[in-house]
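A.,

Following up on our hallway conversation. Structure tokens first:
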């Protein structure tokens, strides 16, 4: 995907503060954090959104969710509570169409979300 921002981060063409990496997933800090911990977890392989990730083979969605939890543990927010969010589609606020899990924690998170 030549024009994809997050593919460029995977390719190290655009810098990011990487906090966790596996062979198939990458996690880096959101450039505009909404909580003390705000990390984006992506599959290295390009899929547009959570629907496409759910269709991906070889358990890729499983890898991304496991990476999200590993990030929460590493960031020290797993015990206190954290949120994993996939904004899916423009109506849900998705702006970057390379699927990403937001891992949010480190403060009280209200419900319902905006
Ligand atoms: P979405 O709105 O698609 O759910 O989330 C996209 C997220 O990507 C936003 O929270 C935004 O702050 C973040 N973001 C956009 N561009 C960049 C970038 O160049 N680097 C990083 N680290 N995060 C970005
Ligand atoms: Zn991409």
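Then the amino acids I'd put at each of the 114 positions:
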């Amino acid at each position: 995907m030549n024009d994809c921002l997050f593919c460029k981060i995977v390719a190290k063409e655009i810098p990011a503060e990487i906090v966790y990496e596996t062979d198939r997933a990458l996690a880096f800090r959101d450039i505009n954090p909404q909580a003390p911990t705000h990390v984006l977890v992506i599959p290295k392989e390009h899929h547009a959104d959570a629907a496409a990730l759910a269709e991906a083979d070889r358990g890729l969605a499983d890898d991304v969710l496991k990476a999200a939890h590993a990030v929460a543990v590493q960031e020290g927010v797993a015990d206190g509570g954290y949120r994993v969010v996939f904004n899916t589609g423009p109506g849900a606020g998705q702006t970057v169409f390379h699927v990403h899990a937001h891992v949010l924690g480190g403060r009280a998170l209200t419900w319902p979300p905006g």
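Residues 82 and 109 are 8 Å apart (CA to CA). Curious whether your intuition agrees with the design.

B.
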